[in-house]
Amino acid sequence: MKKTIALLTGGTTGEWVVSVKSAATIAQNLDSDKFEVYKIMLNESGWFYEPADSVKVAIDKNDFSLTIAGRKIKFDGVFIAIHGSPGEDGKLQGYFDMIGLPYTTSNALTSAITMNKGYTKAIVNGIKDLNVAKSVQIFRNTGFDITTIKAELKLPYFVKPNSGGSSIGMTKVKHADDLEPALEKAFKEDDQILIEEFVEGREFSVGVFKAKGEIKILPATEVIPSNEFFDFEAKYTPGASEEITPGRMTDEEKNRVEEVVKAVYEKLNCNGVVRIDYFLEHETGKFYFIEINTIPGQTITSFIPQQVAAYGMELKDFYTQIVEESI
Q: Which tens digits make up the pLDDT trace of 68-110?
């Protein structure tokens, strides 16, 4: 018997555009023989299902159900494809936990913690063979000293919203005089800012997921951006960066990276598919953790679909495994 799945898309941040594209990829590849899928849009106007041949139907938030032509539709589970808030920061996960509806992502606590780059780095720091770049975390409503920050960190450094995604609001600062405008830009996106020293190295991104109770590692993608760094344009504009999947790593590097990212997945108590970004430092080959995305992009230009193909798996089978593991 088919499972009835709500594919939740949209969101309330600038990442909603990416979310809609991710949901389109997922919808096209969810196995119609196994799942009856309803794409649910969440935005500032509400939560609703919009069939192609009818007016939109609001979700009953008391039990997350739909009523169509007098028939009440209840879901077996939710495939959350919302990047940023409220899909990636634990809010929706907390709601679904309260009403007892399973979902495809990490739980509310893990989602909330991993949305905060600074807190995540503090937790994973100490994992064998994992390094973190030196950084300073500041808050909008508490005092911080620009002079002290400039003295503590060596240029260049990245200024990034602590809870943002898709590199929105992020700046690479090469000159100390450019720190203040970079902070202003980042504070437009978040009340917390992470200022992090630049690591000179090769950049990679790797998908990690759980299926049949086992943590599996996808082939990593090596990222060579044509821009100054892997920003929003480089991520979502075809041809704006060179992406090599599988990335160029020695067998030793590959084995070490797989052990590190598996340990990260376990320590953060992740579920579903996540994406972990990292550098391999040029001089030393050391692994430097950048960040984790608990709801990574699934657009046609995103890494996860590329890596699933390189893994030798069809997206239909991949999404089936994600749903069946969680729901």
A: 989 999 999 999 999 989 999 999 999 999 999 999 999 999 9
Q: Which CATH superfamily is domain 135-197 in?
A: ATP-grasp fold, A domain (3.30.1490.20)
User: Is 15 noted as a catalytic residue in this protein?
Assistant: yes
Return the CATH number of 3-104, one of 3.40.50.720, 3.40.50.1170, 3.40.1080.10, 3.40.50.20: 3.40.50.20
Fold of 113-131+200-326: D-amino Acid Aminotransferase; Chain A, domain 1 (3.30.470)
- pTM of the shown model: 0.89
- 78: which residues sit within 8 A by CB, 6+ positions away? 5, 6, 7, 8, 64, 96, 101, 102, 103, 104, 327
Kindly indicate the confidence band of residue 230, based on its pLDDT and cuts at 50, 70 and 90: very low
Q: Which residues are annotated as a binding site?
A: 277, 291, 293
Q: Which of 111, 166, 167, 205 is catalytic?
A: 166
302 is catalytic: yes
Check: CB of residue 208 under 8 Å from CB of residue 218: yes
* Mean pLDDT over the full length of the chain: 92
167 labelled catalytic: no
Feature table: binding site for Mg(2+)? 277, 291, 293
pLDDT in tens, 99-152: 999 999 999 999 999 998 889 999 999 999 999 999 999 998 887 888 899 988
Can you tell me which residue has the tokens 């821009």?
A: 227
